[in-house]
Write a structure and sequence with these properties.
Blueprint lengths: L3 H16 L11 H6 L19 H11 L7 H13 L3 H13 L5 H17 L3 H14 L4 H13 L3 H14 L4 H40 L2 E3 L34 H5 L4 E2 L6 E9 L4 E9 L4 H8 L18 E5 L20 E3 L5 E6 L3 H9 L8
Parallel strand pairs: 1-6, 3-7
Antiparallel strand pairs: 2-3, 3-4, 5-7
Helix pairs in contact: 4-5, 5-6, 6-7, 6-8, 7-8, 8-9, 8-10, 9-10
């Protein structure tokens, strides 16, 4: 139940309300005319030209509708984009900056700032080409805009346009000669450019060497096999050479592995005598062992190397000590039998020679051993007298 004192206060307020006038109230004599001046209650449209003092509410409303400064303008949109940028919400920052640019304020310096800010957002999203485009637009509007110049140089370096990056830095350093960031970018661009130029020279020399090696191999009847292993029974199962291959010899693969990856060795041509030197792999399937020769000259004999590998000291895995040079036979992986007792030279035999992974590979067997007989009977090798 309400207290009697509350009711007494309300009665006193109502009595006072009836006797006192309300400030700024309508005039009792012409309240209808004043009421008609309020835009919300007008019964008909106001005249095209009206007295703003007589119609203050209407003048205020018209100013709100037509004053461009009161709509979301470039400055507000730029600030909005900056807020998103600080939050690392770069996608929304780009939207705000783009909206600010669409206002077309006509202020070149102001638009240069927005372009530069949008370039920064694009940069952090990894959109380097878009970032570079915005940096260029900012530079065009304001050639001395430091942030735009820095961003343009950064984009060029990220895109590996090192020469262009150096131009950006040089141009910027004329305007800002002591800027630390520009000096760092200039040094980085120059370093990357020199490394790229060096790599390009190496690649050109490698390609030239590859062409020479391939021609020399072709002249010597050497067949270079592709690395890709076709499915068993496919039409390309017996394909021996990819004449259209543009890959270097050292890039060819054997069972997913190349000797260059393992040892760093690769085919090379001796510039003095023009001889080819190969990384050669000897395999001993009977004992699951192997030997590797990094530079086997095409004019060397098998017996020369086998005499070194199985000379005075035999390998520990040869418990029966049967791997003596006179007892050994060699068979290329392709399956053609070679005897090393006649001083066979590795690449001057009369049959086509097949090379995978840039590494000639040979099976070494003990002549007339049970394993050798079994291997030769199951491997379908072709015996060749040399």
């Amino acid at each position: 139940m309400a207290d009697n004192s509350d009711e007494d206060c309300m009665d006193a307020f109502m009595d006072k309300f009836k006797t006192e006038k309300y400030d700024n109230a309508f005039n009792e004599e012409n309240w209808e005319e004043e009421f008609e001046r309020i835009p919300m209650f007008m019964s008909e449209a106001p005249p095209d030209e009206f007295d703003s003092e007589k119609y203050p509410e209407l003048a205020t409303l018209q100013a709100i509708l037509h004053d461009e400064d009161r709509t979301p303008q470039a400055e507000d949109l730029k600030n909005e984009g900056n807020s998103y940028f600080k939050e690392k919400n770069y996608e929304k920052a780009i939207v705000s900056y783009s909206a600010a640019l669409s206002v077309k304020s006509g202020d070149g310096d102001f638009n240069a700032v927005i372009y530069s800010n949008r370039a920064a957002a694009q940069f952090y999203l990894g959109n380097m080409r878009s970032a570079l485009k915005d940096a260029m637009a900012a530079k065009k509007l304001k050639p001395d805009h430091l942030k735009a110049l820095i961003r343009g140089a950064q984009c060029c370096i990220e895109l590996r346009y090192f020469a262009e990056g150096i131009k950006w830095c040089d141009m910027a350093l004329k305007l800002h000669p002591t800027d630390k960031k520009l000096l760092e970018l200039r040094a980085a661009a120059d370093k990357h450019k020199r490394a790229a130029d060096r790599d390009a020279r190496k690649a050109k020399a490698k390609e030239k060497n590859y062409v020479a090696r391939r021609k020399l191999c072709s002249d010597k009847g050497i067949k270079l096999l592709q690395s890709t292993q076709p499915q068993r029974g496919s039409d390309t199962d017996e394909k021996e050479e990819d004449e259209g291959s543009s890959r270097g010899l050292s890039e060819l693969r054997l069972d997913g592995l190349s000797s260059q990856e393992v040892t760093g060795a690769q085919v090379f041509i001796n510039q003095e005598d023009g001889a080819i030197y190969w990384p050669v792999l000897f395999l001993y399937p009977e004992h699951q062992q192997s030997d590797f020769i990094s530079a086997f000259c095409e004019n060397h004999c098998f017996s020369d190397h086998l005499a070194v590998m199985f000379g005075e000291e035999l390998p520990p895995w040869d418990a029966e000590q049967k791997y003596r040079p006179p007892n050994l036979q060699v068979c290329p992986l392709k399956g053609i039998y070679i005897s090393v007792l006649r001083n066979t030279v590795i690449l001057t035999v009369s049959f086509p020679f097949f090379v995978k992974a840039g590494t000639p590979s040979f099976i070494v067997l003990v002549k007339d051993s049970p394993f050798c007989k079994q291997y030769l009977s199951t491997s379908k090798v072709q015996r060749l007298k040399v």
